[in-house]
Request: fold
Amino acid sequence: MAEKEQIIITPTEAGVRIDRLLAERFPELTRSYIQKMIREEAVLVNEKPIRASYKAAEGDVIYLTLPEPEPLAIEPENIPLDILYEDADLLVVNKPKGMVVHPAAGHYSGTLVNAVLYHCGDSLSGINGVLRPGIVHRIDQNTTGSLIICKNDRAHQSIAAQLKVHSITRKYRAIVHGRLTEDGVIHTTIGRHPQNRKLMAVNVPNGKDAVTHYRVLETFDQFTYIECQLETGRTHQIRVHMKSIGHPILGDDVYGPAKCPFAGLEGQTLHAMTIGFLHPTTGEYMEFEAPLPEYFERLLEKLRR
Reply:
């Protein structure tokens, strides 16, 4: 059965085109898809059909019939996993560069979920549905490193609760543009960019609290090797935070310079090195470290010369 939403337009939303407003409210839906829904009268304002160019007025009531999710059969794939730890409740994997964590538009195979389905069979938590079995948190496609996969709902709920109260240890390694000489803390809000919904930005309306601690490990002529520890876990947090202080991550083709100074570098030099948490069953604190990938080590050696 299709899901129905009712939205009442606030004073700050008045005057905004209806398709743009809904794209901001529902970032998982593209603006073109919303325009299609409007044409098909799946979007009504005050119970009447409207055009995509309609500008919302304060107090308008929008009735939105969201499409039913299409059932997808995600196939197990025999993709090698770099497993740092495994037991009956969970496994910790070292995700390689270029691998998407879970299926989404344009990526229905070759994902981490395809690989863990093959490895674990039916032994994965089902809380996040068929597209994200076992997935309790994620890292970007071109970020490497440690990730927890939950094998049952009890483990999933335990890890999710620890993530919610920010008690999980998450330390990343990164190479950033420019010379940093002192350790620091970045504390802002992070939310969807008001002009480009695919990007995140600091200090935007309705942003969520975000805190990143960074520590200088090595300084080079034009770059700095740092460790970042997350206090919160917002989308693209480290990438957005380092850009906000004028030190974007080397290789970041979204938040960094358009031209990368190192040919062949695909995506940001960001590695989720350390993850620590309380085990869902034993309550014991466990910590795991994913070694730096070869490309990262080679880049550091090049910078040291």
